[in-house]
Design brief:
single chain; alpha/beta; 2-enoyl-CoA Hydratase, Chain A, domain 1; 3 domains; 6-stranded mixed beta sheet; globular
């Protein structure tokens, strides 16, 4: 706008600048892809849409492979966050996945095994993209909500923790898978988890490859809220496989742990019957409520507050990300080749892991790491 008063003599430009970095070349609608859309901001009380203000939704769309991200999808996530960050009409960003089963299960194992294994330099370049993806989330100048619609595992857990808040389906599970499948949780988990959990919980969650429930992670402060998504005969039913009505039993905390025996069996049957019809009404109402809260704050004060808290995560992420990138690249000729290869060939061999004991025995015997040694520990094609 033109200056008025004593400075009305100074020339000014009036046309808005376009700060968007990316066009839609990195987004799509047909899986596998990243979907980017701007949804109108809603007043959660009236349900009315607000003119000219939006919430950007970045959705990992690869449901056939549990929303694992391909190389092209990583580019789409980067493009989405960078455009949302610079879009003056965007109030907040929602990061989610397609369908009722998974937010994200990490990198695409098929791509890892069939292309990147034994190509260390190629994987190193891919890791540059991965690091850029995490950086884009942490640098976004809009608050980021992770809408955890299902499994948040491995690299999915890592990019989810880069977000500012997490609201989860109560069917979601959380954990790492790297040490079991040939990698290490150094794409963010080893940096972020110690900020959320106790150091021993972070350690065990990183290395054990156990999957923890949304209720357990809520109790341990990893996520802000978990909400039921099963609606049976018009009533909301909390995850029937998880203990949610008792906190302590025999002196041990049992809230958020899996049920056992017949109760667990019956719960799993119920989930199997209804999960494909999961209703995300409560989850989305909570996302709308949080987005509306953000919209009713000074935007400059809001992002300064968020950036100040993010900085604690960024410090450790920035300290180690390049060293981890090089290790992960080098690892693609050894344990990653075996781990991703075993997982990717399960339909051929019937096994998704190597023979770990035989592998350790070979190491103890000082055997050369060649294809013959690898063949000893991988599963064999079934006839």
């Amino acid at each position: 706008m033109a200056l008025k008063g004593a400075l009305d003599w100074m020339p000014r430009e009036e046309e808005h600048k376009d700060h968007s970095l990316h066009t839609d070349v990195h987004w799509g609608t047909k899986d596998p892809c990243t979907v980017y859309e701007k949804r109108p901001l809603k007043d959660p009380k009236s349900g009315k849409e607000v003119e000219g203000l939006y919430v950007s939704w970045i959705r990992l769309n690869n449901p056939k492979q549990y929303n694992s991200y391909t190389t092209e999808m990583v580019k789409g996530v980067i493009a989405g966050f960078e455009n949302a960050s610079l879009d003056r009409s965007v109030v907040a960003v929602v990061f989610t996945g397609t369908g009722p089963y998974a937010f994200c299960t990490g990198g695409n194992t098929k791509e890892y095994s069939e292309y990147y294994s034994m190509r260390s330099d190629e994987y190193g370049q891919y890791m540059e993209l991965f690091n850029h993806m995490v950086d884009a989330i942490l640098a976004c100048k809009k608050p980021v909500i992770c809408r955890v619609n299902g499994m948040r595992v491995a690299g999915g857990q890592e990019i989810g923790m880069a977000c500012d808040l997490a609201i989860a389906s109560d069917l979601a599970i959380f954990g790492q898978a790297g040490p079991r499948h040939g990698s290490a949780p150094v794409g963010g988990a080893s940096d972020f988890l110690p900020w959320y959990l106790s150091i021993e919980d972070a350690m065990w969650n990183c290395v054990s490859c156990e999957m923890w429930s949304a209720y357990k992670m809520k109790a341990k402060n990893l996520i802000s809220k978990c909400l039921p998504v099963l609606k049976i005969d018009g009533k909301w039913v909390r995850n029937p496989t998880i203990i949610t009505d008792q906190y302590v039993k025999d002196g041990e905390i049992v809230y958020g742990e899996y049920k056992s025996g017949k109760e667990l069996e019956e719960g799993r049957a119920l989930v199997k019957q209804y999960q494909d019809k999961a209703d995300f009404e409560l989850l989305d109402k909570e996302v709308d409520r949080i987005s509306w809260t953000f919209a009713n704050l000074f935007p400059g004060c809001l992002i300064e507050s968020i950036d100040s808290i993010r900085q604690k995560k960024k410090f450790f992420w920035d300290t180690m990300k390049n060293a981890h990138r090089h290790w992960l690249a080098a690892n693609m000729t050894g344990e990653a080749f075996l781990g991703f290869g075993a997982f990717n060939t399960k339909k051929i061999t019937g096994k998704d892991t190597i023979d770990f004991i035989k592998f350790r025995q070979n190491i103890a015997a000082g055997k050369i790491w060649d294809y013959d040694m690898f063949a000893e520990v991988l599963g064999k094609p079934q006839k």
